[in-house]
Design goal:
The complex is a heterodimer.
Chain A: H1 24-59, H2 61-72, E1 73-78, E2 85-86, E3 92-104, H3 106-109, H4 112-119, H5 127-136, E4 146-149, H6 154-163, E5 170-179, H7 187-190, E6 193-195, H8 198-203, E7 214-216, H9 219-223, H10 225-229, E8 233-239, E9 245-252, E10 259-262, H11 266-276, E11 281-286, E12 293-299, H12 305-308, H13 313-321, H14 330-333, H15 343-352, E13 362-364, E14 367-368, E15 377-378, E16 386-388, H16 390-396, H17 399-419, H18 442-449, H19 455-461, H20 472-483, E17 487-489, E18 494-498, E19 506-507, E20 512-515, H21 521-536, E21 554-560, H22 573-579, E22 583-590, E23 597-603, H23 609-612, H24 614-632
Parallel strand pairs in A: 2-10
Antiparallel strand pairs in A: 1-8, 2-3, 3-4, 3-5, 6-7, 8-9, 10-18, 11-12, 11-23, 13-16, 14-15, 17-20, 18-19, 21-22, 22-23
Helix pairs in contact in A: 11-24, 15-17, 15-21, 16-21, 17-19
Chain B: H1 16-36, H2 41-63, H3 66-90, E1 100-101, E2 106-107, H4 109-125, H5 134-152, H6 157-173, H7 178-198, H8 201-211, H9 222-234, H10 245-248, H11 260-293, H12 297-321, H13 339-357
The chains are: A alpha+beta, B mainly alpha.
């Protein structure tokens, strides 16, 4: 090793240009001047650093402090618990059950595409969910958690929990999921909740729904959305850089939604459901004393729970493709020709307006001719019923009697009188989507067809044919009005509601629309007697219902064509043609002395009304009276 | 003892000022590390062990007289070059090939160069008459340029620059004439565009981000923004030990290594930063003082270079954390978590202590 000789200086080996000999003193001085220069730089740098840190930490401290807080503190809306729904005896119809959902904070998630791709390996991610997520993102802020998938399975929760660190900005959140324990039995009443979509956003208060993922889409859930939803609360939480909540700093509790008690009796509902069997149809029962709805069944139905977590396209197609249009609530949206079920109301119109009387008899020969027309209007029994008064005409459903009566009344008076029972207008039930039906009149026909009214149309209107369209609910409301001596209520499903935290529920009374003027109590009794004899008379069209279990009921059968159905454009024509004339209707109430229930039933494609629909009504009344009996016994 | 071993072996020549300041720094570092590591005692123990190992090495080196160190210098430098070359051929590391895996220890050969380069330049200037001639300066430039280029190629631009800085500092302290300095400076300025072209894309991004961090607040600007927020929110007195939200909620990246100063500034405020700077200034000034007292060129240049380079580390890291300088991977001396740099630093101070301890030692 060629270590140069040092200290006292040596030859520079030709490298040095200036001094060949090391000058120790000079070099030391040179070093000191350079070191001094370096120290000046050091002092400058230190001053700059101190100035910079002073600026950051003192001058701009407020700003950075605020940024630090907004970094870590997040205001998170807290979803209120949706109100529960019970039947009139306190049985839960809609519950909230704990579930888990996957959420993403887009701001924290980095490359979203990549995150989703990786997530799909541990959690089942249907394409629908990913699309919905992409659409939902727009209504959330970048730092809000956007739900990706609801109702994770336990396995998915466990798998994600293991891998959580690999997914910044993704987290599992517990929530309460809506559950309908009775499934399709109550679909058409309760409706269902579903993910909030663009349409919902237009009518909902978006500020109050920031934490809410679901909203009522139909039925009671939609009708009473405001009460069921409540108001969201606010929580200030500390989050880490990954967006995960570390702890809660401050919290304003949400106001939970109101619990609702419906007037339905689930046992009566079940009886109606069972009585319909596999046939499409509708049943609705009302308490004529207060207008509360006791049962409301539309068949076919579907499982509302499918919709809660976002129904898959396949499931939805299956519901759409199923015969019988399960999405239709036939009770309020099914438009049926009332047929003979309209006769009691026409009879009452004739009596109350003095056009006919209880004693007046009409001869039924089987055919009724209108002057100038060759085509006869027929009775359902070949050869006719002979001489009949109004009660017999109801008991046996004698068309000829009502042809005469309708002609004597005229369409104008008939329309005006029947309108009082609610035909041709919505009943005012607390469900969205009710049809008005059609109660024809001269004005209506002129407006609709630009044609005058013909007498023949008056004749068939007398037996509920022609242009008449009613919903099962309208029939029930009308028959309840007969049962209650003219009191007509806007039927109501909501029986009581309970504010969150309150012990007592508040009774919600149905609105009384009007008291139909009673000219003579006798006339009402006459009609009710005619209806009683439909069931109990020796020639009653529904006498096959006997024997009844310790009570008397009144009723009226009808057999009718379906003229129109709501949203009927996509109705399968060939299917309709085969079954058009065979819809069975029955209306009734019981007990005759002091009615507590009025029912209307339609059995589609069922055939004769008394044979197919009457037993359904009886089954519903039985179920109701079986529970009401203890109260009824003393009388 | 003195009789058993070569004559230069004696009692440790401790410099109490340096030792005290360094130990205060290390203690402060462990305190901050506990917080920055998310209260992980394991990290603190490992770091403390490194400090211990470094102190042992420092005390050992303080016993070795400068002329012995000088005689080792070319060998050390040569060894460093060989290891660097090996690293290029067979290195492994996270993204950058900086680590050489020897059977026993994994380390970065560039750490050796942090000492070997100033030592080599000082060794080269030692027999020469100063100020250095053009030719001597060019040779010295090659001595520092080759390892710097090898390290830059790894790529580890930060370390390469610091090693170049340590070499340049030595040349500067040797008395390179101002006119050459100005000439070289303008040459470097002229070469900047070419330099930009040679940089890796991530390095260019760092510069872009430094110039405008808010342009990509969630991407490459994140570090700088979050770091500034941490520092700024610390205020005058800080949020208190273990109470830094930016740190504990993981907003600061690399918070226990390169950005540990952000944690310190957040939790101990401007007061903590000032205390830290005071310690650094004390250490640096002490090194320069020792250099000024040294009797031979080698010792003088080496101690001066080690002192100033140490402070350059400080300025680069502090500037980076405060958003004054681009993000380069330079740890905060004595504070940042990490093995080899701590040991290298303490070894350097061992050399400085030896220089001071042997200043009156005439062989």
């Amino acid at each position: 090793m060629n270590t140069p000789n040092s200290i006292m200086g040596s030859l520079s080996g030709g490298n040095g240009r200036g001094r060949p000999i090391k000058d120790v003193v000079f070099e030391s001085r040179l070093f000191r001047s350079r070191a001094t220069f370096g120290l000046v730089l050091l002092a400058l740098a230190t001053a700059v650093l101190l100035a910079r840190y002073t600026w950051l930490q003192v001058v701009a401290h407020e700003e950075f402090s605020a940024r630090s807080n907004s970094n870590r503190v997040r205001v998170v809306p807290v979803a209120p618990n949706r109100g529960l729904i019970y039947d009139r005896r306190g049985r839960p119809l809609a519950e909230n059950i704990p579930a888990y959902r996957l959420e993403i904070v887009p701001e924290k998630a980095g490359e979203l595409e990549d995150t989703l791709t990786r997530l799909a390996t541990i959690v089942e991610l249907p394409e629908d969910a990913v699309e919905k997520f992409a659409r939902d993102r727009k209504r959330y802020r970048e730092f809000d958690a956007v739900p990706l998938k609801f109702n994770l399975s336990e396995e998915e929760v466990a798998r994600f929990a293991l891998d959580r660190h690999r997914y910044p900005g993704v987290d599992i959140a517990p929530y309460l999921s809506r559950y309908y324990p009775y499934g399709e039995l109550l679909t058409h009443v309760l409706g269902y909740v579903g993910r909030i979509d663009e349409g919902d956003l237009l009518r909902l208060d978006s500020a109050d729904y920031r934490a809410t993922s679901h909203t009522g889409k139909s039925g009671i859930e939609r009708q009473y959305e405001t009460a069921l939803h409540g108001h969201s609360g606010v929580e200030r939480v500390e989050t880490n850089a990954g967006g995960r909540v570390i702890r809660s700093l401050e919290r304003t509790d949400p106001v939970h939604g109101d619990d609702l008690v419906l007037s339905l009796d689930i046992q009566v509902q079940q009886a109606a459901w069972d009585a319909l069997g596999d046939r499409p149809g509708a049943v609705v029962a009302i308490d004529p004393n207060d207008g509360s709805v006791l049962a409301m069944v539309s068949k076919p139905a579907f499982d509302p729970n499918l919709f809660v977590h976002g129904i898959s396209t396949a499931d939805y197609q299956a519901i759409l493709a199923s015969p019988g249009r399960a999405l239709l609530n036939r009770v309020i949206q099914g438009g049926y020709e009332p047929g003979s079920t309209l006769k009691p109301f026409v009879a009452l119109a004739g009596l109350e307006l003095g056009v006919t009387s209880a004693d007046k008899k009409v001869f039924s020969s089987g055919n009724f001719y209108l002057p100038g027309l060759d085509r006869p209007f027929r009775d359902w029994r070949k050869g006719g019923h002979g001489w009949v008064d109004i009660t017999s005409a109801l008991e046996q459903s004698v068309n000829t009697y009502f042809y005469h009566l309708a002609l004597d009344l005229g369409i104008d008076r008939m329309h005006d009188y029947l309108a009082q029972f609610g035909f041709g207008s919505v009943t005012g039930l607390d469900l969205p989507g009710e049809l008005t039906g059609i109660l024809p009149s001269r004005e209506w026909k002129m407006a609709q067809y630009h044609q005058p009214w013909y007498p023949g149309e008056t004749v068939i209107s007398g037996i509920g044919q022609g242009y008449n369209v009613v919903t099962p609910l309208q029939l029930a409301v009308a028959v309840a009005a007969i049962a209650s001596g003219g009191r007509r209520f806007a039927p109501q499903l909501l029986y009581a509601s309970k504010r969150a935290g309150n012990q007592q529920a508040t009774r919600q009374q149905a609105a009384e629309i009007l008291q139909i003027p009673v000219v003579s109590e006798q006339n009402w009794d006459t009609v009710r007697e005619g209806m009683r004899r439909v069931v109990h008379g020796s020639a009653g069209t529904a006498r096959a219902l006997q024997p009844l279990d310790g009570y008397e009921m009144a009723g009226k059968s009808g057999t009718a064509q379906v003229i129109a159905q709501a949203q009927g454009k996509d109705y399968d024509e060939s299917h309709t043609a085969a079954n058009l004339r065979h819809h069975a209707l029955f209306i009734g109430f019981a007990p005759v002395g002091r009615p507590t229930i009025a029912v209307a039933a339609v059995v589609e494609n069922g055939g004769g009304g008394s044979r197919q629909a009457a037993p359904v009504v009886k089954a519903v009344i039985d179920a109701w009276l079986a529970q009401e009996m203890p109260q009824e016994m003393p009388q | 003892m003195k009789g058993l071993l070569p004559g230069w072996f004696g009692l440790p020549r401790l410099d109490w000022t340096l030792l005290l300041a360094l130990m205060l720094l290390a203690a402060l570092g462990l305190l901050v590390l506990y917080s920055a590591s998310g209260e992980d005692p394991g990290a603190v123990y490992r770091q403390a062990a490194r400090v211990g190992g470094g102190v042992v090495l420092m005390l050992g080196l303080s016993l070795v007289p400068p002329h012995v160190l000088r005689s080792w210098t070319p060998w050390l430098y040569g060894l460093g070059l060989v290891l660097l070359a090996l690293t290029l051929l067979a290195g492994e590391g996270r993204g950058a090939d900086r680590w050489l895996d020897l059977a026993v220890i994994r380390f970065q050969p560039s750490e050796i160069m942090k000492l070997a380069v100033p030592m080599m330049v000082a060794w080269f200037f030692n027999p020469l008459s100063l100020p250095p001639s053009i030719r001597a300066t060019l040779v010295a430039s090659v001595l520092l340029g080759v390892p710097a280029a090898l390290i830059a190629d790894q790529p580890d631009l930060g370390t390469a620059m610091l090693i170049a800085v340590s070499g340049c500092t030595t040349i500067f302290l040797a008395g390179l004439r101002w006119r050459y300095i100005l000439g070289l400076g303008s040459l470097v300025a002229a070469a900047l565009p070419a330099f930009w072209y040679m940089m890796h894309e991530y390095q260019r991004n760092r510069v872009r981000t430094f110039l405008d961090p808010e342009s990509d607040p969630l991407g490459s600007g994140w570090n700088i923004i979050q770091s500034k927020i941490a520092v700024g929110s610390g205020g005058l007195l800080g949020k208190g030990w273990l109470n830094g939200t930016q740190s504990h909620l993981e907003f600061i990246p690399e918070r226990h290594t390169d950005f540990i100063l952000a944690v310190l500034a957040e939790e101990f405020g401007l007061l903590g930063v000032a205390l830290l700077l005071v310690l650094y200034v004390v250490i640096t000034v002490r090194c320069i003082y020792i250099a000024g007292m040294a009797k031979d060129t080698y010792s003088r240049l080496l101690a001066g270079s080690l002192g100033f380079t140490f402070f350059v580390y400080v300025v680069v890291n502090c500037g980076m954390v405060a958003g004054l300088l681009p993000v380069v991977g330079v740890p905060l001396p004595m504070i940042s978590f990490g093995g080899t740099s701590m040991v290298t630093l303490l070894a350097g101070f061992g050399i400085v202590m030896s220089i001071h301890g042997h200043r009156n030692f005439i062989r």
